[in-house]
Amino acid sequence: MQLSLKKKLWILFAWLAIVPAGLYYTYQFYPPQNVEGNGWELLTLVVFATAIPLMPIVINGSTIFFIQWVTLVGFLKYGLFVEIVLMQFSIIPLLIRLRMAKTDWHRAPLNSLMFFLVSFSSGLIYFLLGGETGATSIGEMLPAALSYQVASIMINQFLLLAYQRYVVVNDIRFYSKDFIWDFIANMIMFPMSLSLYFLTFQIGPFASLLIGIPFISLSMILKMYNSSEKINESLQKAGEIGHQLTESLKVDEVLDIFLEKIIETLPVEYAYILDCKGDELVLLRRVESKQKNVHKFPTLRKGQGISGMVWESGKSVIYDSRSEWVALADAYMPAGVESVLCVPIVRSQKVEGILLLASSKKRSYEKFQLMIVEILCSYFGVAIQNARHHEKTKQNSERCALTNLYNYRYFEDMLSLEFNELEKGERTSLSLIMLDLDHFKVINDNYGHQSGNEILIELADRLCKLIGKHGTVARYGGEEFVILLPDTERSEALSLAERVRKSIAHRPFVLHDTLQASNRKLMVRITASIGVATAPQDADDTMALIRHADRALYTGAKQAGRNRVAEYVK
């Protein structure tokens, strides 16, 4: 959760009020002890305090920084001031490791303040229990040192809990998984810290090297093992996502699943899917979690910007900071973006689209994550093509090729579904409007069938605009059309049918005389006869509703002179 500027400033003011004065007070009352002649030993402790945060150990998903392994030695031998300084030194690499964004600047004073409070409070507890600086007998200092270790872990947890509850306003448990692992790990490291402490009396700065180098080597081995585990886990997850993508047969659903899973898998604040159309990249979908005002996305060409460059080369790119890509970017890129990952979506060795991911943090993406995204893009390329093919096939089977209206087969299925809803009480009524163009054969005979088709296409467009979302328009066959109106009473259906009749009769249709060489443009007036029937009053099944609307059309409208609306009469 992003903190408000007011809360960030309060954190800064708290740091200014406590830490500088606290360091001065600590130096005055708890000055460094046993420093003379131990410069190299102190330097090795500073080096390890700086290096250890860069090599955390991940246990069961919890990241643990063993910084107290070094700071405890500094405290026991050189006093509280040295321990505080070592802990403050460790903040810099820790923040680098956490890849802090510019908007998270408050974390520097926050961590410094919390580390100071933990060091100072646990140090006071050590001295209150009779602990001394530079003790050479383990019996004399063990109870106080153990209390110091436990106190530092507990105080740190209390401060984290207070921060989450009262600053972030996030209710968390005291005994969380991270706390338990942190407590266990630091208590396991406690004997190692004591061993290092007593070794310093025997071999000086070499003690840190004797224990520190094997420890760092172990951390690196565990880090490599954890990375391999993460890669295996990510590959397994990628396979599961691939199955989900290929199971979906709707384009919008494939796009939604793909973006949702990408955002779950990687640290993504901005995501864009671009489609290769001719020589241009067209935006298909985007997610901008930190963008308040969504700007119009420009059309990019091959070789233009990061996405265009990836399209042209067919190779993925990954950038850790803004300075690496700012000279390449063109047109659109949200402010504050640092890390960028851009991958081509390839199908049959051809780039069909581009995926661009971005984050406001530096070094957000690792090399293995790029490999995972490339695998997901391969799945996505197949899934989106299958979905498009399915939707096109479905549209061809459901719609009239000439007018793009639903065809007779789809209309019958829709009518059956709506009738079922009517019988279950989910619909109050169901009206059917059936219309047939008057003397349409004359149009075909005088101007040609292509001209007649132009009228049918224009009529379909008029009907769709007039009906909108109130019902379903379908081409029933030839020059016959039907309009299915759920939850529409007879009076309302008759009124709508009259509006349809007027929209046909009062506005001439534009066509071209295809029987003449000149193919001249003409304005032709036509009319339509319309029949209306409503269930359940007029029919108790689908075929009866069609039959009765058809009867109203021919006996009530056609035979009565055409260009009129008629309702079914029993």
Task: List descriptors.
single chain; 570 residues; alpha+beta; 6-stranded antiparallel sheet; 5-stranded mixed sheet; 18 helices; 15 strands
Describe, in plain words, how this protein is organized in 3D.
- The longest helix is centred in the middle third of the chain and has 42 residues, at 206-247.
- The strands form four sheets. The chain has a six-stranded antiparallel beta sheet with strand order 5-4-3-8-7-6, with helices on both faces. Strands 10-11-9-14-15 form a five-stranded mixed beta sheet, sandwiched between helices. It has a two-stranded antiparallel sheet with strand order 1-2.
- The chain has 570 residues and is α+β, with helices and mostly antiparallel strands.
- The model has no long low-confidence stretch (mean pLDDT 85).
- The radius of gyration is 38 Å and the shape is elongated.
- Strand 12 (509-512) and strand 13 form a beta hairpin.
- 56% of the residues lie in helices and 15% in strands.
- The chain is built from 18 helices and 15 strands.
